[in-house]
Amino acid sequence: MEANKTIFLEQIEDGLATKWLGRTIHFYDKVESTNLLAAELAQEDAPEGVVVLADQQLSGRGRGSRSWHSPAGVGIYCSVILRPQVEPEKGQLITLMAGVSIARAIERQSGLSPRVKWPNDVLINDKKVAGILLEARVSGARIGYAVIGFGINVNNGRGDLPEDIRVNASSLRMELKKTVDRGPLVIKIFSELEELYHNFQCGDLSVILEQWRHYSSTLGQRVRIWRKDKATEGLAVDLTENGGLLVRLAEGKQIVFHAGDIEHLKIL
Q1: How confident is the model at residue 233 (pLDDT cuts 50, 70, 90)?
Q2: CB distance 134 to 146 below 8 Å
Q3: Which domain, by its residues, includes 257?
Q4: pTM
């Protein structure tokens, strides 16, 4: 197991083709949460592109109060420090950008057909294989730093998934019916993320939005969105320029959602 961990990190360091993202990696056998450690580094002025990567998380976190099951040796548990210096309302685009980067990397490394579910999931065959958590610190009218964390079920078997999520979750290994090398996948994700982040920093948001629409499993779906125990149902029709989800209600009115828990409903 120890040798496998060393190979995992060496593969990434030897194969990395990015200019700045991932050039400093803090690798741990076991942590509470990569996002927590990355936020501490960001507060200590760690530069953009620094990565926290772990073989196992004891308290991996998802959106809200959810957890992300992070067993040793099978998944990718990673957080990246970014310093975008943009308005807080553009933060949602960072989450969408990460989802597209993961989807593109999975597609190009494995041949699978991943889809992104608004706002922060990556699915294969309608089952969740990856989740994204953005945590940002606002300084004045700008985002001072953003930590974009993601967990990916790579080589998890069915028994590695908590019983309560097995119906709706999967892994790359379960979908491909074979083991996936984690190192090359991390390398590809970093390359995709650096490329899209360059567009983001240059103000070319259309690339991110177009790519997200391309991979979307949400657009064109009837959805139910929960916000503070209130549910709204309608048809997901598009994204706004800041990454909000535009939903058309039955009576024709359109509402933009910037956050919320979402269910895809069957079209009647």
Answers
A1: very high
A2: yes
A3: 222-265
A4: 0.94
